[in-house]
Design brief:
Pfam families: HTH_25, RodZ_C
Order of helices and strands: HHHHHHHHEEEEEEEEE
Protein name: Cytoskeleton protein RodZ-like C-terminal domain-containing protein
Helix content: 40-55%
InterPro entries: Bact_Cytoskel_RodZ (IPR050400), Cro/C1-type_HTH (IPR001387), Lambda_DNA-bd_dom_sf (IPR010982), RodZ-like_C (IPR025194)
Keywords: Membrane, Transmembrane, Transmembrane helix
Shape: elongated
Organism: Deferribacter desulfuricans (strain DSM 14783 / JCM 11476 / NBRC 101012 / SSM1)
């Protein structure tokens, strides 16, 4: 435990406050407050989070944060946080990759469909052949005579009828529809989306890029709420940093900047522990 963390914990206990009391007052989860009191700042989402949460916590307890700043700097260093770099590919490259992937899937499933059709034809012909032999055997046992020539002809006609039915069913199979249904099922099964809610308390312009595909560009008014779903990340530019609050899985993020201050390239993503993390990228 760092000296900074010990000062905060001792002060809180002297005021008979629980972590839950502090969490409700400054809108920071008890999990983050526990990390601060343990001195485990590097487990917070970013240095920005560590600084902002610690400052709010100290000031709520009645401290002047500037006086505690040397202790904080000693306990929490920027280099303790691993940097992330965002590689944003062009829509054109992504579209080419998607097209190639779709073509590959189409050929794979086309081959599967052809194999199934061949198996279906073989099955019907084989079943018909066995049925004809069975019928002839039964007739031979009953009549004890050799099958007549016209009976053989009738059996051939039955085989032709079965072939016609199979060919008709094959003609009705649409490989494109089968591929589309499989692709839709893959999208549902393989993609997991996260959802964040954006709330605005003042007017500002907003530009959001979601997973390098969806672009939202709008003017938000006081009271505007916007729910966005993303798979990997979203990148946001805002014209009024103080107007935006983001909620994700019972966590609240705000204080991205000053009133009427524009902020660009705020990169949000979810880590392995399902924590929403953000940083400003170039």
């Amino acid at each position: 435990m760092s000296e900074f963390s010990k000062v905060l914990r001792d002060k809180r206990e002297s005021l008979n406050l629980s972590l839950s009391d502090v969490s409700k007052a400054i809108k920071v989860t008890t999990h983050y407050l526990e990390l601060i009191e343990k001195g485990e700042f590097n487990k917070l989402p970013s240095y920005v989070h560590a600084y902002g949460f610690s400052k709010s916590y100290a000031e709520y307890l009645g401290f002047n944060f500037d006086e505690l700043k040397p202790l904080f700097d000693e306990a929490c260093k920027k280099e303790d946080f691993q940097k992330k770099y965002v590689k944003i590919e062009s829509d054109e490259i992504i579209q080419k990759e998607v097209n190639l992937k779709n073509i590959h899937k189409f050929f794979v499933f086309f081959i599967i469909v052809v194999i199934l059709i061949i198996a279906l034809v073989y099955y019907f012909l084989n079943v018909n052949k066995k049925q004809v032999i069975k019928n002839l055997t039964v007739e031979n046992k009953t009549a004890n005579v050799v099958p007549l020539e016209n009976e053989t002809i009738n059996s051939d006609n039955k085989s032709k009828d079965i072939k016609a039915i199979v060919e008709e069913k094959i003609d009705k199979i649409d490989p494109k529809k089968i591929v589309e249904q499989i692709n839709k099922k893959e999208v549902v099964d393989n993609e997991t989306f996260h959802e964040a809610v954006l709330e605005f308390n003042d007017i500002c312009w907003v530009n959001i890029k979601i997973d390098n595909k969806t672009v939202l560009d709008f003017i938000a008014n006081p009271g505007t709420k916007k729910s966005i779903k993303f798979k990997k990340y979203f990148l946001i530019d805002i014209g009024n940093a103080a107007a935006l609050t983001i909620k994700y899985d019972n966590l609240t993020f705000s204080r991205f900047g000053g009133f009427r201050q524009p902020v660009k390239n705020l990169y949000f993503t979810v880590n392995e522990d399902n924590y929403l993390m953000y940083e400003k990228v170039k």
